[in-house]
Amino acid sequence: MKYRIAAWAIVGFAVAGCWTLFALANSPATMMSRDPILTLIEFTCPLVLVGFYFHFGVSLYATLVANAATYALLGLIAETLRRRLKHAQ
After folding, report:
1. CA separation for the pair 6, 69 (Å, rounded)
2. How many domains is the chain partitioned into structurally?
3. How is 5-56 classified by DSSP, letter by letter?
4. Which domain holds residue 59?
5. pTM of this prediction?
């Protein structure tokens, strides 16, 4: 179970890393507030969503770490539910 949760954290880190590369490749002026890509970024990186709505800056490193932790928490919840459902059968 530890390896699966670690895999979830790695996926979260990779997702934030890909969005970081996307943001570095595109100028901020091209990413407007109603852009569909920005909605996808907000959905896959919850810390960015919080930063946009409460108007505070978030560094790229903090986004990477927070997204990995968020995905690890989601993985912990998913794996716990999966184990409970497997034992219930």
Report:
1. 10
2. 1
3. HHHHHHHHHHHHHHHHHHHHHS-GGG--TT-HHHHHHHHH-HHHHHHHHHT-
4. 2-88
5. 0.81
